[in-house]
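Standup notes
- DV: blocked on the single-chain target, sequence here:
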Amino acid sequence: MSQVQISASLVKELRDRTGAGMMDAKRALEETAGDVEAAQRLLREQGMAAAGKKAGRATTEGEVLATVSGTVGAIVAVGCETEPVSKNDEFLSFAEAALEAVETEGPDALEGLEERRLELIAKIGENVELVGGTRLEAGDGELLAEYVHPPANKIGVLVRVKGSDGTAARRLAMHISFAAPRYRSVDEVPAEELANERSIYENQADVHVSVPLKPWALGLNASEAHHAPTNRPPAARA
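- DV (later): unblocked, structure below
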């Protein structure tokens, strides 16, 4: 049985559709007797199989994106394996799509990007993970502020505060980004941890601490979910 001759124009058409490499596109066309639709389906199946093999890889790089529009704000974290991929146009386009989905429909909308995520993994050859996302709405007397720390864009914060001072709210978001808070309120801090912290401060200052230690609030980085901050002084006082 003679092999179907695959033209360069057919290979180009399949590559334009899928972003596959030249040899991968040619092999897929050869296996499907030059049927572009079948070759495209075959490449997707192969890509999803490859994505499954990469699923366990650590995603230590990535991008955090955040936006505030009126009374609605959203923040997402998308992970990848290497820094060059985190600056890749296709990766960033996927991250933007994730942010838009969360802003429009909430974090559950990220599930709808699973097929696109698998296709991206197959294309770039690295694991890509939707680490998390949150959508907040401001009520009466409240406002939202966001901050993503440049240039790496790996740490971001979205806050909802009472008041009308947008500058102070953004400064608070910035403060949270470098403070790396772990709790939203003192009630969430284990008693043992509070005792340990109190002991550290007493030993440093050599004085008795008579007031409860105020814990930091939770923020968001490339591997943690967002929580709104409480029990924090205004950023202007930091």
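- Follow-up: The domain at 61-181+218-237 is CATH 3.30.479.20 (Tetrahydropterin Synthase; Chain A).
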